[in-house]
Amino acid sequence: MTERLLGILTRSFGQILLPGIITTIPLTILSFAIGMLIALAAALVQAAEVKGLRKAARFYVWMIRGTPLLVQLYIIFYGLPSMGILLDAFPAAVMAFSINVGAYASETLRAAILSVPKGQMEAGYCAGLDYFQIMGRIVLPQALKVAFPGLFNSLIGLVKDTSLAANITVLEMFMATQRIAARTYEPFALYCEVGFIYLMMCTVLTKLQKYGEKRLDKAGRMTGKPVTGRGGVICWK
Hints:
By secondary structure, this protein is mostly helical. It has one domain: MetI-like (MetI-like fold).
């Protein structure tokens, strides 16, 4: 019995890991990249307090954070076809995960942007910079350091959330495991195996997060000298 189980786990490891490499990782990277663009737009709109757009961004964040990710997946993949919008499983998963990540990450970015002293904005305007220049050259570089741990946590969470894509027929690691378990009747061992693979992926990302935090902290110490403009401190070099 033990030899049979060991043989199943040995053979299944590659069969589970391969969908992780060709599906889970690309799904995570694409969803996170698009989600970050959505998050940045939503955070900037709220920070700028553009009335109509700010309310729209707040509604988007409220709606996505208040509904389960699985429901969002089902609405996009199974619900949209009733409105004439047909999406393959992988693009539907990317859309759902991107929208979900965007909502949570936008709050992280918004809080980080608001943590930058308002005097920085005023100093930028006094120096003749417009809103986007101030954000790009002054506020966002400072906010990134504050937001980095939270954003990386969102990335780690997304790696695990991709397992939900199995519910809309995306052949990623968890679905591959389900198929092997149905064939071999060894669900406990196989689900522990896929859990271990997810754990290793998240461990690698955790190490990268710590490395990135150290690099940001070191860069802040080395290049943290303020440059003063006409209205006060406006940027760091």
